[in-house]
Amino acid sequence: MRIACLQFNPQLGNMAHNLKRAETILARASPVGLDLLILPEMAFSGYNFKSLQDISFHLEPTAAGPSTSWARSIARRLKCHVIVGYPEYCAHSPSAPQGSMSRYNSAVLVSPQGNVLANYRKSFLFTTDETWAEEGPGFYVGDIPGGLGKMSMGICMDLNPKKFLAPFEKYEFAQHVLDTGSDLILMPMAWLTLQPPASIIEDAQVPDADTLAYWIQRLQPVMDNGPTGVSEETIFVTCNRIGIEGNAVYAGTSAIVGITKGNVKVYGCLGRGTEDLLVRDVPGAKFGGMDIGRSR
Predict the structure, then answer these.
(1) Which of 39, 42, 116, 202 has its CA 20 to 30 A from that of 85?
(2) Which segments constitute the CN hydrolase domain (predicted)?
(3) What is the CA radius of gyration of the chain?
(4) Is residue 31 part of a domain?
């Protein structure tokens, strides 16, 4: 199975620039034979909006806005599944008060034929999300057609303890992965770094090791009780963004990781400040684990 993460630096509120930037990175990489392409959380709107008023112009109708249109076009062109995060608005039923709507931090999954397969709404909200979004109904699980396996999808904060108030050892998302027997864990992110802003320039090519270690730590139940053979690895894929938005500094470090009981294998990882397409082959029905390196 060939997976790609498109890590880049979206500019807040600049949809046209962000769409063009993603296209440029894809064109430079010229990937072939992809099964799955994943982009960051709120990839084309930017993330760090301060209020509902700030983000209202950038909300997109459920699986029908410019982010989904882009995903459908790229999915057909590359003949692969595509996941992209976006800010969603959803009109209520006709019986609801006129003009009322719900808003979510969401991610859409599109098939190689350009069909929308799933629309996941972030369950655990970060403080930035809480200024405009509602909680989704729960973590997603579903089979990806084409023999790619069962997928659990979350978005960024879903990997943390809920509201940072739940016990660390509760591992809500990881337990969901175990309970559903998922083969793939897919997470668009806009994850912050604890490192100083200068580090994303001075050490742009270097992954944020603390961030990557934390992500893996949050999947501890999968490491403790997951599959035992490399042919049955649980594949964790996270596509983060880079850059700075106001006081938000993002960690980059998009990664593709294989997890078996007692073992973790990092198939590939990008730097904390690099715009690039990470492409890796991982064990699965189509490829069996050959490491092809980064696509350019």
Answers:
(1) 202
(2) 1-284
(3) 18
(4) yes
CATH number of 180's domain = 3.60.110.10
- 116 assigned to some structural domain: yes
| Residue of 88, 122, 233, 275 marked catalytic | 122
Number of domains in the chain: 1
172 part of the active site: no
**Within a domain: residue 292?**
no
Of 5, 156, 239, 269, the catalytic one is 156
Active site residue 41: yes
In tens, the pLDDT along 21-73 reads 999 999 999 999 999 999 999 999 999 999 999 999 999 999 999 999 999 99
Identify the active-site residue in 5, 41, 60, 233: 41
Instruction: Tell me if residue 233 is catalytic.
Output: no
